[in-house]
Structure formats: structure tokens, C-alpha cells
Write a structure and sequence with these properties.
The complex is a heterodimer of chains A (492) and B (598). Chain A has 13 helices and twelve strands. Chain A is α/β, with parallel strands linked by helices and 492 residues long. In chain A, helix 2 crosses helix 11 and helix 9 runs parallel beside helix 11. The relative contact order of chain A is 0.21. Chain B is mainly α. Helix content of chain B is 43%, strand content 2%. In chain B, a hairpin with a 6-residue loop joins strand 1 and strand 2. In chain B, helix 6 crosses helix 7. The longest helix of chain B is centred in the first third of the chain and has 21 residues. The chains are: A alpha/beta (492), B mainly alpha (598). Chains A and B meet through helix 4, strand 7, helix 6 and helix 7 of A and helix 10, strand 5, helix 20, helix 23 and helix 24 of B.
Chain lengths: 492, 598
């Protein structure tokens, strides 16, 4: 079933933000047949584990999602953000276990109208604030090739990720193992390529997406399985569940079964039959869960929010893990609309409420399945947005805050270092125009997730998948002092 | 405009229904032209290779004038450009019922593609432009090009306009295109700045060699990999090394959008200057701030190691550095270095077989014999009048080669290739004169192929196109050491979804009596076929017609009898007689014998 899908991409090096075109250590002139050969080792851990990537396309303005609540910190924030700032009184308080400045969540409703917070946001804050919290907030994360200071950025004295502030490219660096991966292969795809052998079922990919093609799951060999959130697609004309297609189906299978005198014809026919058997396998496996999660997410025909619809499908797929004979799965969920250059005050709150709604309900679903400790969901987005505004919205930024939710998460605290939110000329973290230099790299974030998923902390594991992560050490207050961030334990 | 099938041809097909598939229908009238097509089947094969799909009228014309004259005609036609189509859509007033219908975006390029594939008279040029777009790749998926549909349409037009010229000129046009400059970051690439640790970007340098001209390893003239005589066993020889990349990287410096002065080099953009996207890049030089220093952005002084190969004109492949000009008007320019570097690339012996083989793969077959590649490479090296890089000669050599016109010899490789999904769509719509009520091919799956169709023009995920030229699907193809690039996009999701797209495309026909048929979708015109299919006495003639039109006569007896048996179980007047037509079309279009074009 494993087929090649996607290809190496040439490095798209920065033009205007020049700096090094640092070559990935994996680059080789030789046209390697397989750069990422199959590992002889399985991933660590004897249980089922799943990673769920929730990618927020467009660049989420997370500086308005997680906002300082301390009076003077908020004043600084509000002064810089001007018209798009969230009033302090409307923030939903977060009470982290570790000491530190006070923060709050955006209420998930349009601010300044006296509307109470969206219940989903209250629920998300509650999940963060509870004892044994399962929500971690990772501050100001973004693609980096090296830890980068403002001075280094301005002098171009360290290599920078190419094409900063470009959607396509920054999306890629959020999903690939390094911030300049030559081959546009994602770290999820890479894990599937190397460790797909972990799964007893070799006919279904480790990687499944409810949002179609994505860089995160792009691999050299393993083709992700795409599932529509509305249900697994069949080839309608040969649908076996009713009578009209039967004769047509039989005719097609007579054609597929030959005699075929050409190797390409035979290869096509084999592949076609395998495609059909794969989707029938998944459809059958999903049948028992048709209404299992309706109480949490709502019935299918009542869901109009694309994120919730996808997460419900992911929950159903996870509930079928035993039937499908899978022990390690990586899911991708995509949700767009975050490029709030305009009308941010009107548009962003609903998006944030949708995130809170989807994530909290999905967590509930994993609890219902009794595997909350075995599923970790994390957000990602190509960039945060500018601290400054353009009148009624914000523009492409760089670092942004993200959430990790799951039963295994060391929650109820902040990880990494929050950046200064001061005005640009007095902000040591500001690359310019309010684009904040990340204080945590995606490498560190991803390695922490992969380490929990079962990637080994050695040269053949971490070293191969995340070669740049050793450039970054978590030296934040309460940091690990290591390459990972500590919001999840390692698999053993 | 619906295609009008010639009554003559229709009757001839009906009468020929029971005839042996190899019968030449028109042989009673005249001898086949000396350059072919020798048979009706080969006429259809030729049109499948040289156009976006055979039509009855093109079939008639080809039989009348022969392949050689047909090629002459096609080579003489100018390229029907795609950018004017976008401009025409932009000029339409907003539709109050559908405000986005006349917005121009990347989806409009897809419309333009189908409009030209279906109706442009310069079919061969359009087909070759499409093939070149899969070799000299740019994409709206990178380089910040997502918001620049006009720029990408212009790039496509460059491929079409120069695709029948000389490859050297085509390479230069591509190199100086700001679209390519953005995609592979030559635009704004600057000379070294050791103080700030800046060195020239190597992106374009790498790809112009690896993908656009010579590939990674030395090739024999027949496209097979050269064996290093100094090493035991079989060992390939690399064509270039890191030093060469650095050399070219230094050449490709100093260029940015046209219209910027030297002081604006680092910030030059096309913002509020859309015309800059459709003009070649320029290399500004001149007086710096304070009128004291003449600044250049091109790396002049360094010696640049370029390619080394037998017959290379640069001594040891080194392009000597020169002092940068310090005043205007010296006649010294970055362009001179660029031209010398492009000459160096163009004259490498790999270009003929490397590019030639890929064009064969796009037009004819995935696994051409080495001899076939050698003949095409020879045409690249010398068009017969001493000119190297003549694309007309190359295309003619590809299409008139005995291995294109008949069964391959000297190879055990499987014949043919997996038909690209886009080409299956254009074939269906051309064969049956597809019409859209709006006059535009703007069906939602044309606009947003997304998960349904794994290709659309200049939309590849990476510079490595939709598939690699040497992709080997697992199983007997890989085991035999053969390749089949198009299999790389035959993934579960796409196979499923594209099969459903084909269902919509075949079921949407003019005259569909169903209340569920959407009159706004593109519709096939299948009257002739309906006449044949809805009468049991002519069911074989119907199958033969589709066999010839869709499969160039290659349908096996097993497939014919399977179709026949199935169709006869369907009511003859189902859906007013149209049912058997779309049923046959869909089954054919997902069948292995059709999907593999031979």
C-alpha cells in the first residue's frame, strides 16, 4: 500500500532577508533512492499513542489568544496593540500552577459588547486551571535555524529560515523537521516512513488526514490516508451497499482481473483493487462509532464548524484503532481563516471559540474512550501576527503561542519564554514592525511531541529526525535545560 | 462550440463495426501518406500523443494531410497565450448572483488551461508547453507566487512561445523570469558580503543543473547512465559538485525585478508594479547614496567554477572573474556572465538525452528504449542544419520515431505510460465536444482540484513536479528496473476521488433527462454514440467507436466482450438512450487497458 507521493523540494532561500542559505545536513548531491530508510526499531512504548496536529492556516494571532492579565503588562500590550487589543476585564483568567505573570484567554466573543465569554473558552480555561491540568501553553514558538536575537536578526549574522513571513514557506517550516528542509517532507511523514513498521496493520498508513494534502505528513514512501470529515469516500459507481452498482462493479472487476498483458496495466489494476479494499476496511471499522460521539460533538448534521467535524472523525478513527490494528497514529486536521489582515475584531473571536470548542470536546472524547493519556493534540500555525495593527487587523508575524492538550501533558503552566510586547523601538524581541522573533523553535516543540510518541533520544532517533534541535536549549525560567521542553514525558 | 462529427466518419465507423481492429477504414480511397499515419489506429495514437486528445475532425485532417504536413502546420502556428484569458475574465462585470465568478485567481489559470486544451488550434504547442511546465517547474505553491496568477500565466506563455524555439533561448527566458526568480530565489540574489557572512544563494544554481538541463549523473548519448571506468562495478559519474554550484550561484547574482534602481535592489518588489512580473529581470548598477560609489550587486571578481565536460569552451570550465565596473558605460555587465554560464550549461552533452528523455516520457512512453532516446538526443544535438537545441527537431523526432509510431524494439520494458489525470479529462472533453452553458470551463473541480485531481498546471507541490521521472511503483515494475512516473500520484485518495470525478464528467451530458443533472456543469455531446448504443444491433459498432476514439484501437477481445455483455444488460433506452454511453465511458476510463496509454 505504501507508495511514494511527494518529493523533495529545493531550498527556497531568503532573498530580501538574506543570510545564509544554510544547507540541511541531510542534503546530498547523490540522488539517494531513500534518504530515510526504514528503521529496524519500533517506536518506544507498548501502548497505543496518537498525535493530532491541528494546523491553523493563515497565521493565528495568538498574542490575542493568550494575553497578559497583570495590570502593567496588559497596559504595555494594549498600548502596542491599539485598536485590536483585548480589554483586560474581558479575559478569561488562567491560573497556572507554576509562578509567573498572570495571563488570560480571549473570551471567544466580540469584545467591547458586554457579551459573556464563550462557554468553550471557559471550558478550555477550566481544563488549564484544574488540578492535574492537561493543557500546556507553549509561548512564542516559531521556525528558527538558530537561537536568534534582535541584533543577530538585524545584522543577518545567523542563518534565518527562508522566506520569512510567507504563508507557503512558513507553513512548510512549521511542518518539516528543520526550518529549511530541502525535501518538503514533514516530521510526521518522516516518522511514518521510518517507523511505520511499528503498526501491525501494514495496509493502512500511520498518517491520516481529514484535511487532505499537507506537508506535515508528506513522506518519501508512506502515502497518508486521506479521509473526508464527512465520511470515508467510496467510488460511487461500484458502491457495494446497494444493488444498482452490482453489475457495473462486476464488469469493472472483470476488466481489472484481466488477462492484462502489460506490466503497467497489471500494476494499475493491483493498485486500484487495493484502494477499494482499503476504504472498505476503514468504512467497516468506522460503522460502530456512527453515533458514539454525538453526545459530545453533536450529531453530524448539526455540526457546521469544519474543525469540530474533523476532530469528530478523528475521534471515530481512534475508536476503531483495534479493528484497524493500529498502535501508532498521526492525524492532521486543518482549519483556515486566520489571516486576519482585516476585520480582525469581528472575525477572530469566532475562530478562537472554534479552537476552544473543538479541542475541549475532542479531549472529552478521548476520555470517553478511556485513552486520554494516549492521545496528544497540539496546535500549529505558520506564524503569529504583528503586535502592531494596520487599522483593523494584523499582518504576518513570526513567533506565536500554542496549546498542547492530552492526558499525558504536564499542564497548567507555560513553557518557554513570553516575549516583550512593547513597542517596536523598545522591544528586544521585535524583528521589526511588531514581528516577534520566536523564543522557542519549532524543533524543540516538535521533538517534545515526538519524544512522547516514541522517538528515541539518540542519534538514530532524535538525531536523524530533528538534526537542528541540539542548537536549542531550553533556558527559560523553569526550563528543562535540555532540547525538549518538558510538557510531555518521554515514552519508555 | 460543439464539435460536429462528420457524417461520413460516423457512417464509416458504423459499417466498420464488425471489422478487424487493424482494418484501415479509408484505404479504399487512398494510400497512407509516406510519413504516416499508416492506420486509423496510429492516427488516433498520434493525436493522443500530439494533442490533448483526438477528435473526429482532427482525425480526418490528419489522415488527409499526413503526419509530416500536420507537424509542419502545427510548428507554424503561434502559441495561443493564456494570460489574455485571465485579463478577459478580469474585464467582465461582477455577477450579482455569484460575486466571485469573475474574480481572477489561480483557479482562472485552470480555466484557461482547459479552454486552450480543448479549443486552441496550436494543439502541439499547447501540449509541449504543458510538458515543459513539468520540467522547468514553477508553482503557485511556493516563492510567494500564490497571489500572482497573471505572473504564472505569463510564465506558462513563455514556455509556449519559446517551446518551439531553441532550448538555449528557453533556458535564458526561464532564468530571467521574475517568476522563476521568486520561486528559486535568484531574484534579489546578491554578491558575497564576507563582513556580514552573506554568500550567494545556491537554489537556482542547483536546480538549473539538476532539473532543467543535465541531471545529477553523466549520461551516455542514449540516456543510460555512464559508468566510471576507474571504479570497479557500476559507478555513476556526477555531473557537478559543490564547487560548481557555488560557481553558478555567483553568476546568478545581481538580478531583481526590472524597474528598480541600484539603491532599491534589496527592497525591490512588484508591489504596485504588476508589470514587473511580466518583464525579464534586470541587473541594476549605478551610483550609490552620496554619489561617490558605483555599486554593483553582481559577483564580478570571483573566478567561477562551472561545468567541465569534453569540448567545454571555458578553460577547465572556469568563468574568469573580472573587476566590477566602477563607472557606467564600460560595457561590462552581469548579463555577459549569465550568457556565458548558460552557454556552458547548454553545451553539456547531457542536455539532449536528459531533456529529450523526459519529453518522450510526457508525450509517448515512460520507458523509451536507449536507441529511441539516442535518436532524439541526436536531433537535439543537431537538427540537420548544424543547429543545437532546436526544439522543433526534437519534438518531430519524438513523434515520428518508429518507437512512437509502432511497437518498441530492443527493450523488454512495458509499453506506454499511465495517462495523466488532466490528460484523461481533456481527452474526454475533446472527444465529445464538451460544452459549458457559461462558455467557460469553470466547474468546481476545475477551479479547485484539491483532493480530487492530483495535478493542475504550475501547481506542483515542489520544483520536482507532480512525480519524479524515475519513480518506480512497487511490484513488478520496480523489480524489472523500469519506471512509471505518473504512478506516483496514484494514491488511494486520488484514485477514489478521481474515479468519482470521472463519474460526474461522463454523466453530465447534453440531453440528460434527470432532474439531478446540473445544467451549469460542463456537458458532453454524445448524440452519435447514443444512436449506436441504444440499438442492440449496433452495440459492437458503438464499442468499436469508443475503442478507436478513446483507446486508439487497443481494446482487447476480453474487454470488448466484458463491455458488450454488461451493456446488453442495460435497457437500450435507459436515460433516453444515453445510459449505455456514459456507462461504457466510465468503465473504459477506469479500466487498466485505457488508463495505460500504449
Amino acid at each position: 500500500m505504501n507508495r511514494r507521493d511527494l518529493l523533495k523540494k529545493s531550498l527556497c532561500l531568503a532573498a530580501s532577508t538574506a543570510g545564509f542559505g544554510a544547507l540541511s545536513s541531510r542534503f546530498s548531491l547523490a540522488h539517494a533512492a531513500t534518504m530515510y530508510s526504514k528503521s529496524q526499531r519500533s517506536l518506544l512504548g507498548n501502548d497505543y499513542r496518537a498525535l493530532v496536529c491541528v494546523f491553523l492556516y493563515g497565521g493565528n494571532d495568538s498574542f490575542n489568544f493568550i494575553v497578559p492579565r497583570d495590570v502593567s503588562a496588559h497596559a504595555t500590550y494594549a498600548a502596542t496593540r491599539g485598536a485590536v487589543a483585548v480589554p483586560r476585564s474581558e479575559l478569561v483568567p488562567l491560573t497556572p500552577t507554576a509562578s509567573g505573570a498572570a495571563y488570560g484567554l480571549h473570551p471567544g466573543v466580540e469584545t467591547g459588547a458586554g457579551t459573556p465569554p464563550h462557554p468553550a473558552m471557559t471550558a478550555l480555561a477550566g481544563l488549564f486551571n484544574q488540578a492535574n491540568s492537561r493543557v500546556a501553553i507553549v509561548a512564542n514558538t516559531g521556525p528558527l535555524l538558530h537561537p536568534t536575537t534582535k541584533t543577530q536578526y538585524q545584522n543577518e549574522s545567523v542563518a534565518l529560515p527562508p522566506q520569512l513571513f510567507s504563508h507557503d514557506d512558513q507553513s512548510a517550516w512549521w511542518q518539516t523537521p528543520t526550518a529549511n528542509s530541502f525535501d518538503r517532507i514533514g516530521w510526521g511523514g518522516l516518522l511514518a516512513d521510518r517507523f511505520g513498521i511499528t503498526n501491525p496493520n501494514q495496509n493502512l498508513a500511520m498518517t491520516i488526514s481529514t484535511d487532505g494534502d499537507n506537508v506535515f505528513q508528506t513522506a518519501e514512501d508512506v502515502v497518508p490516508y486521506f479521509v473526508s470529515p464527512w465520511g470515508v469516500d467510496r467510488i460511487g459507481n461500484i458502491d457495494p451497499t446497494w444493488s444498482e452498482p452490482t453489475a457495473r462493479r462486476n464488469a469493472l472487476y472483470q476488466l481489472l482481473n484481466g488477462p492484462l498483458n502489460n506490466a503497467l496495466e497489471r500494476t494499475y489494476a493491483t493498485g486500484f483493487k487495493r484502494t477499494v479494499s482499503n476504504y472498505e476496511q476503514v468504512i467497516t471499522a468506522l460503522q460502530p462509532s456512527a453515533t458514539t460521539f454525538d453526545a459530545i460533538f453533536g450529531a453530524d448534521d448539526t455540526i457546521d464548524d469544519y474543525l469540530t467535524r474533523q476532530l469528530k472523525m478523528v475521534a471515530r478513527l481512534i475508536s476503531a484503532r483495534d479493528t484497524l490494528n493500529m498502535t501508532r497514529q498521526i492525524f492532521f486536521v486543518g482549519f483556515g481563516g486566520f489571516d486576519t489582515h482585516d476585520a480582525q475584531l469581528a472575525n477572530h473571536p469566532g475562530l478562537l471559540a472554534a479552537i476552544a470548542n473543538g479541542l475541549t470536546k475532542f479531549y472529552q472524547a478521548t476520555q470517553q474512550m478511556g485513552i486520554a493519556n494516549q492521545v496528544t493534540t497540539f496546535t500549529a500555525s505558520e506564524f503569529g501576527r504583528t503586535l502592531t495593527n494596520n487599522g483593523d487587523g494584523t499582518d504576518h508575524g513570526w513567533g506565536g503561542h500554542h496549546l498542547v492538550i492530552g492526558g499525558a501533558v504536564n499542564g497548567g503552566r507555560f513553557y518557554g519564554r513570553f516575549p516583550s510586547l512593547a513597542a517596536s523601538n523598545s522591544n528586544p524581541d521585535d524583528a521589526g514592525w511588531g514581528q516577534i522573533i520566536p523564543t522557542t523553535s519549532v524543533d524543540q516543540y516538535a521533538w517534545t511531541l515526538a519524544r512522547w510518541y516514541g522517538l528515541q533520544d539518540d542519534a538514530d532517533g532524535r538525531g536523524l529526525v530533528f538534526p537542528n534541535v541540539t542548537r536549542f536549549t531550553d533556558v527559560s525560567q523553569n526550563g528543562t535545560g535540555s532540547y525538549h521542553l518538558g510538557f510531555l514525558p518521554a515514552a519508555t | 462550440m460543439p464539435r460536429m462529427y462528420r457524417l461520413f466518419a460516423a457512417i464509416a465507423f458504423a459499417l466498420a463495426g464488425q471489422a478487424n481492429a487493424q482494418t484501415v477504414i479509408f484505404s479504399a480511397s487512398f494510400e497512407p501518406p509516406p510519413g504516416g499515419p499508416a492506420t486509423d489506429q496510429d492516427a488516433m495514437r498520434f493525436l493522443t500523443q500530439a494533442t490533448f486528445g483526438p477528435t473526429m475532425s482532427e482525425f480526418d485532417r490528419l489522415n488527409l494531410i499526413g503526419i509530416d504536413a500536420w507537424l509542419d502546420e502545427q510548428f507554424a502556428l503561434p502559441f495561443s497565450r493564456h494570460r489574455p484569458y485571465l485579463e478577459a475574465i478580469a474585464a467582465l462585470p461582477e455577477d450579482p448572483e455569484d460575486p466571485e465568478a469573475n474574480n481572477v485567481g489561480q483557479q482562472t489559470r485552470n480555466e484557461a488551461f482547459f479552454e486552450h486544451a480543448l479549443h486552441a488550434p496550436d494543439q502541439l504547442r499547447q501540449r509541449v508547453a504543458y510538458a515543459l511546465s513539468q520540467i522547468l517547474v514553477v508553482s503557485d505553491q511556493g516563492g510567494g507566487l500564490g497571489g500572482e496568477p497573471y505572473a504564472l500565466a505569463h510564465y506558462y506563455d513563455l514556455l509556449g512561445e519559446h517551446g518551439f524555439g531553441n532550448y538555449r533561448e528557453l533556458l535564458e527566458q526561464v532564468t530571467l523570469s521574475p517568476v522563476m526568480g521568486s520561486y528559486l530565489s535568484m531574484l534579489g540574489n546578491r554578491k558575497p558580503d564576507p563582513v556580514n557572512n552573506i554568500r550567494p544563494d545556491e537554489n537556482y544554481a542547483r536546480e538549473i543543473m539538476q532539473l532543467f538541463s543535465i541531471g545529477l549523473v553523466r549520461l551516455n548519448p542514449n540516456g543510460t547512465e555512464m559508468d566510471d571506468p576507474g571504479q570497479p562495478g557500476f559507478q555513476t559519474l556526477p555531473t557537478y559538485d559543490q564547487e560548481t554550484i557555488r560557481g553558478f550561484a555567483h553568476v546568478f547574482t545581481g538580478y531583481t525585478f526590472s524597474g528598480c534602481g541600484v539603491r532599491e535592489f534589496e527592497y525591490c518588489s512588484a508591489w504596485e508594479h504588476p508589470e514587473r512580473w511580466v518583464q525579464p529581470m534586470a541587473a541594476p548598477e549605478g551610483l550609490w547614496w552620496g554619489d561617490t560609489e558605483y555599486r554593483v550587486w553582481h559577483a564580478y571578481p570571483e573566478n567561477k567554477q562551472l561545468l567541465v565536460y569534453p569540448g567545454v569552451s571555458l578553460p577547465n570550465g572556469v568563468l574568469a572573474g573580472r573587476p566590477a565596473p566602477t563607472v557606467a558605460g564600460t560595457g561590462v555587465s552581469a548579463q555577459q556572465d549569465l550568457e556565458a554560464a548558460l552557454d556552458n550549461v547548454f553545451n553539456h552533452p547531457n542536455v539532449g538525452p536528459f531533456i529529450g528523455k523526459q519529453l518522450i516520457q510526457r508525450l509517448v512512453t515512460s520507458n523509451p528504449s536507449p536507441a529511441y532516446v539516442g535518436r532524439v538526443a541526436a536531433a537535439f544535438n543537431n537538427n540537420g542544419q548544424g543547429v543545437r537545441g532546436d526544439m522543433r527537431a526534437v519534438v518531430r523526432a519524438i513523434l515520428t520515431d518508429p518507437e512512437a509510431r509502432g511497437a518498441p524494439s530492443g527493450t523488454t520494458a512495458p509499453r506506454g505510460k499511465l495517462r495523466e489525470p488532466l490528460l484523461r479529462m481533456t481527452q474526454l472533453w475533446r472527444a465529445f465536444g464538451a460544452v459549458d452553458a457559461s462558455g467557460r470551463y469553470n466547474d468546481w473541480y476545475v477551479w479547485w482540484p484539491g483532493q480530487y485531481i492530483p495535478q493542475s498546471p504550475l501547481h506542483a507541490r515542489t520544483v520536482f513536479n507532480f512525480y519524479l521521472p524515475d519513480f518506480k511503483p512497487a511490484g513488478e515494475v520496480a523489480a524489472g528496473g523500469w519506471v512509471a512516473p505518473e504512478f506516483q500520484i496514484q494514491t488511494d485518495g486520488y484514485v477514489t476521488n478521481f474515479s468519482n470525478v470521472l463519474d460526474w464528467m461522463t454523466w453530465n451530458y447534453q440531453g440528460n433527462p434527470s432532474q439531478w443533472a446540473d445544467p451549469d456543469m460542463t456537458r458532453l455531446v454524445i448524440e452519435t454514440e447514443r444512436g449506436l448504443a441504444s440499438n442492440n444491433a449496433t452495440i459492437d459498432a458503438f464499442i468499436e467507436r469508443l475503442n478507436l476514439l478513446m483507446m486508439a484501437g487497443a481494446m482487447s477481445p476480453h474487454m470488448k466482450s466484458t463491455l458488450r455483455t454488461y451493456l446488453l444488460t442495460l435497457p437500450a433506452n435507459g436515460e433516453n438512450g444515453y445510459r449505455r454511453v456514459w456507462e461504457a465511458l466510465w468503465l473504459i476510463m477506469v479500466s487498466p487497458e485505457y488508463v495505460i496509454e500504449k
